[in-house]
Design goal:
The protein is an alpha/beta fold. The chain is 48% helix and 12% strand. It has twelve helices and seven strands. Strands 1-7-6-5-2-3-4 form a seven-stranded mixed β-sheet, with helices on both faces.
């Protein structure tokens, strides 16, 4: 998905918010804004939002000396999501279709995106509402059908907090098909996106191999991936992409991808043809 002019003020807002997590010094906040503004002329027609985002967050690290401004928020996100899991008690077995319930729960977790929101809000209440709502784009049955015959499944993670629900999703996927699973994380910290240690902290390694993109982009941009990440993406029988950042970077991917996300901005809303706030399971073919 190509970057839209509306993405630029969004990233400016994100830059200020992240800089304030690092320092109270207004001089640094202003320098971050000046340097981010200087990146805008370098945007090309073929750029996607995560490519620009990497430059923004690299600048923040350079100017503040803080490599991971969201480290505390990421722990908070995982704790909040684990509390929701505890509230579920026996898990998802009481639902008519536990896999569909897990899909919706994993989509609900996509709300925990500090590139979009400043606070996580009531995660449990939001999860319940999403799980009770129909999907705005519903390719779930095709996803389930493809899962049944898969031998190698790649799930591409997005945010911390959300990763807890991704673990539950893969637990349910394994009940349908106990094949090989890989969970792809970011190569280094960016926003509150999930890294290898964040995934290990919530037990992802108990249900899947963990691989990383080799990149600090908040999305899986194939041209920026490591050879290992690209090989896993190409060779998987089924690719499940979580979240908006991965949709922004993979919507033109040269293979079938199933996107599970909440639509969180007007740009993606127009791209997908559904309202902001919609829960989506979308199959895309090249």
């Amino acid at each position: 998905m190509r970057i839209d002019v509306e993405c630029v003020p969004c990233f400016a807002r994100q830059a200020v918010s992240a800089a304030r997590r690092c320092t109270d010094d207004p001089a640094v906040h202003w320098e971050v804004m000046r340097r981010v503004s200087a990146l805008v002329p370098g945007i090309t027609d073929g750029s996607c939002p995560p490519e620009f985002a990497e430059g923004v967050y690299d600048l923040i690290a350079e100017l503040t000396g803080v490599d991971d401004p969201f480290v505390t928020a990421k722990r908070e996100a995982n704790d909040l999501a684990m509390a929701v899991v505890d509230e579920l008690g026996d898990g998802l077995g009481g639902f008519p279709d536990p896999l569909l319930a897990a899909v919706k729960l994993a989509i609900a977790g996509n709300s925990m995106d500090l590139g979009i929101v400043s606070e996580f809000g009531d995660v449990g209440d939001h999860a319940r509402r999403v799980m009770e709502t129909d999907l705005a784009i519903d390719d779930y049955e095709m996803l389930r059908s493809r899962l049944v015959t898969a031998r190698d499944v790649l799930v591409i993670g997005d945010n911390t907090g959300e990763v807890v629900f991704d673990r539950m999703l893969m637990e349910q996927m394994r009940r349908v098909n106990g094949c090989r699973y890989t969970y792809m994380v970011r190569g280094r910290p960016v926003i509150n996106d999930v890294t290898r240690q964040d995934a290990i902290d919530v037990g992802i390694d108990s249900v899947a191999d963990i691989a990383d993109t080799g990149s600090g982009m908040p999305g899986l941009v194939l041209s920026a991936c490591s050879d290992e990440a690209r090989k896993r993406f190409d060779s998987a029988d089924l690719v499940v992409s979580k979240g908006q950042g991965n949709y922004e970077s993979l919507s033109d991917a040269p293979r079938e991808v199933f996107f599970l996300l909440l639509v969180k901005c007007d740009v993606v809303s127009r791209e997908m043809g559904v309202p902001v706030g919609s829960a989506v399971v979308k199959r895309r073919l090249p």
